[in-house]
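FYI - complex with phosphoenolpyruvate, inputs then prediction.
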Amino acid sequence: MAAPERIASLSTAPAEWSPSSWQACPQAQQPAYADATELERALAQLSQLPPLVTSWEILSLKRLLAEAAAGERFLLQGGDCAESFDDCSSPLISNRLKVMLQMSLVLVHGLKLPVVRVGRFAGQYAKPRSADSETRDGVTLPSYRGDLVNAAAFTAEARRADPQRLIRGHARSAMTMNFVRALVDGGFADLHHPEYWDLGWVKHSPLQDEYRAMVESIGNSLRFMETLAGEPLGSFQRVDFYTSHEALVLHYEQALTRQVPRQAGWFNLSTHFPWIGMRTAAIDGAHVEYFRGIRNPIAVKIGPSVTPDQLRRLADVLDPEREPGRLTLIHRMGATRIGDALPPLLAAMKASGRTPLWVCDPMHGNTETVGNGVKTRRFENIRGELDSAFDVHAAAGTRLGGVHLELTGENVTECMGGARDLTETDLARAYKSQVDPRLNYEQSLELAMLIVRKRGALQASR
Ligand code: PEP
Ligand code: CO
């Protein structure tokens, strides 16, 4: 009988999408706002405020990501686990930009590939939590969900989900974005300025000779090309930075989802490159529903519990047209699990003829808690997962096209190990993160150099 089959196929056809259609789906990790009218008022205001990015920037990033998936570029995506409203300051923003810029130059030079730079900033204000509430000394309060939702202090007032924070988050993102754009346009990334090459850190590194040689070689190449051209090369004064964040609080994302003249469809104009976190990637959930309808390039974080079948279905829903640059898959398995967990997923995508951009996040599968309940990550495990990622992709015939890191331009002591071999005792010295531990300035640059080394070794062994 044909009829039941027809009904079955009709019922699985995607329903009409709208920026608010996610509201009819199961919603994970959303704040509980006590006052619906207060929320409505904030959202009405937010939906009238100007966007943070433009559709043409979004579409040009999509083209760059397509090239990264095709092996012609490498993606460097990094920044804080969570930005905070208090950290929206000039030195923190410029130091973060500087470390990303230096890492990207190490990668460009070593990989001989252009690098796409994407910050986890200008909107990375919301966090998924493993529990909805937290109990201290017999007092239970809602969990801290990032500055977009509530505040970290352990008081009832601080932990209240406050809709006004959505407006403040938009404003802080705009300030960050404005400063980043001004720095980039004003020649902050000008390679002619040697002060951007802070060499202090290499004194502690076993990689110091390599690093110095690389800095020298970049300077020489630049001078050589300028001699050929007979003038300073303007294109070396400007680089592009794109923004990304976990699009977690869907009311916020919806209010910044807009239509623009001369383009079909809807764009999330709060960021260039939103991603779905591991805890909100359920196929029938609100986040997947929201993401399927926007035209931005999008990413999904995938952990060791994702099955090949789930991944196939996610890819079909989120990228039914198989559009180049649309879908990035960020795997975050953990150093000890990547060898088993990743190959079946690579095989599944390959078998279905898909070529997503594969990116390794070597941070989130390697978080551990040491004495006094401090959350940390070991540099060796971060490095180990990245090394394995290159090997696993090489064995599968797929390509690792980028890295996703939690880092800061400050000299914090949150991750152990690295050139200075930070120990558990060092963690107390400069641990600033409210959430996950970040690589500090030196550890970040060191990791960039190790990526280059690993890729070089792999190519030499072929
Ligand atoms: C994060 O990127 O900060 C995060 C929470 O990651 P994941 O969703 O992969 O756990
Ligand atoms: Co994190």
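Residues 4-129+162-188+236-461 form a domain with the TIM Barrel fold (CATH 3.20.20.70). Residues 1-11 have pLDDT under 50 and may be disordered.
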